[in-house]
Amino acid sequence: MASLPNDPIGSDYVIDQGWSRYNAADHAIWRDLFLRQSAMLPGGACEEFMQGLTGLGVVADEIPKFDDLNAILEPATNWTIVAVPGLVPDDIFFNHLANRRFPATNWIRRRDQMDYLQEPDIFHDVFGHVPILMNPVFADYLQAYGRGGMKALRLGALPLLARLYWYTVEFGLIKTDQGLRIYGAGIVSSRGESRYCLEDGKPARIGFDLSRIMRTRYRIDDFQEVYFVIDNFDQLFDATAPDFTPLYEQVRGFPELAPSDTVPGDSLIKLAR
Ligand code: HBI
Ligand code: FE
Questions:
Q1: pLDDT lower than 50: segments of the chain
Q2: CB 169 near ligand 1, within 6 Å
Q3: Which among 129, 128, 108 has a CA at the least distance from the CA of 117?
């Protein structure tokens, strides 16, 4: 079906990045965000993220052009970045992921939003999410998540599946021989939380457990009170490969957990001191 003549977006919400419309102030905001987050990356972000960032050639100088990123990303893992105007409806979002397209917001935050903003902007989406898509296993995981999302919508299970996205794609930690490292985009793009999640004694860090994650509410207005830690990306992909239909039923039979709750069976990970 053809889109309406006055519909500038299209049914998939994809727009042109409009790179030439960024001004010097926009590029300067990108640069300042990039520089302060880069300072945290050594000893903070996981190796897969670092390799992705370097491999993509994302730098401080200016807001990246999606076409340039795609020229590297697509041959690497068959993902592409498409520009969208902001949050898109769930079904649209999942359809993009299921087709290995990452919808990235095309606008950048204002100076007074350097530390916090409620919606994703291009810095969160490109600096936070895209580098890890250079990793083949994570790339397959995010596609599987998109397929699972379309199914969860049909089953009325989106709130449960959204917790998996939150506690992995956005706020995931990974165990390495050098200690805990970050792979979640929400952390890696946040100045405060990138230190807090690895160093602060307050939040719990719990070994990855799919049904435990689906029972756990999350907060969007403050640093997390719990992080879930994977051993490696294969664990993430393998755990989420099966059909979730019976799991949703099982999880609905258990009480929900607050982010601050711990329960018997949690594998609590202590910080090395
Ligand atoms: N749209 N652009 C964009 N980015 C997201 O992360 C996003 C979205 N729409 C819906 C959505 N996320 C949620 O469905 C998931 O986080 C579960
Ligand atoms: Fe995000």
A1: 1-7
A2: no
A3: 108
**DSSP one-letter code for 129:** I
Please tell me if the CB atom of residue 171 comes closer than 6 angstroms to any atom of ligand 1.
no
Q: What is the pLDDT of residue 8?
A: 59
CB-ligand 1 contact for 12 (6 Å cutoff): no
Q: For all residues of the chain together, what is the average pLDDT? A: 94
Q: Which ligand is nearest to the CA of 87?
A: 1
Q: How far is CA 51 from CA 63, 66, 103, 132, in A?
A: 19, 18, 21, 8
Q: Which two tokens stand for residue 23?
A: 């001004």
209-243 residues labelled b (16+ CB within 10 A) or e (exposed)? bbebbbbbebeeeebbebbbbbeebeebbebbeee
Cβ atoms of 167 and 161 within 8 Å: the answer is: no
Rounded CA-CA distance 183/189 in Å is 10
Q: Whose CA is nearest to atom 1 of ligand 1?
A: 87
Architecture per CATH, domain 19-252, reads as Orthogonal Bundle (1.10)
Query: Is the pTM higher than 0.70?
Result: yes
